[in-house]
TrEMBL record:
The gene is trhO. Belongs to the TrhO family. Its EC number is 1.14.-.-. Keywords: Oxidoreductase, Transferase, tRNA processing. The lineage of its organism: Bacteria, Pseudomonadati, Pseudomonadota, Alphaproteobacteria, Hyphomicrobiales. This is tRNA uridine(34) hydroxylase. Catalyzes oxygen-dependent 5-hydroxyuridine (ho5U) modification at position 34 in tRNAs.
Amino acid sequence: MTNAPFTVAALYRFARLSHYEALREPLAQLCCSLGIKGTLLLAVEGINGTVAGSAEAIGKLIARIEAEPALEGLELKYSYASEMPFNRMKVKLKKEIVTMGVPEIDPLKSVGTYVAPKDWNGLISSSDTVVIDTRNDYEVAIGTFQGALDPQTKTFREFPAWFEENREQLEGKKIAMFCTGGIRCEKATAFVKGLGFDEVYHLKGGILKYLEEVAPEESRWDGECFVFDERVSVGHNLREGDTELCRACRYPITAEERLSRFYQEGISCSRCYHQRSDEDRARYAERQRQVRLAEQRGHKRHIGD
């Protein structure tokens, strides 16, 4: 899909970024001037974000970010979108660029061993390797690697407690972790290494890089990969997936789940139908009507609708 009009860049870098606050306005102004939309997070530990724009605009933004000596050598994944996948541009100042809530964890001091996508299948096929999906439950629900453990976390903050609770069954094993773009599992490996585990690995570039580089016929990935933009999911070769977002509960729903009698576009799905009242559904129905009217006038809806 390299002929698609929008280039999507998922990027991050852990770094000593003491002047992160001073970068907010220059980056926001540059993005707005170039027509780039998405989100960038800045913290003393580095930068993280996903943005979209023309290939030329994204190239200029990446060059500006990497002009900062501490941010040179970004971890970058490119994909493409047929429509602008974000509604606005946000540059936020945060305590962490990915929130684990364990202040003493420092990925710049110690992390797991990177494993290239081409070598990932060999590692996770080994009988003494435990494969852990560090993403949240709604992401895992639409796709994961064959045989991977699902911690069933609602947020990344829950991961440390889950690992501690399951520590005994993980002792003596190779620990292989993965996430969407690499940032969560990089921090997770730092945490696990800090607990005294030696053989800790993570997928370099995350699922996105794996889906880009590993041929479908050789893949051990099942399903689609959730992304935090209007595409909702991508599959092999980073093609836009079939998953949609339930606008009532904001959970991803597959094509199969949309066959449920509880699914009504913009109003409910099988996950949330019994958690909402008739009044809620009436409100969602009115919102969906407004969305349809807006679409008829040529305005696109966005992820928060």
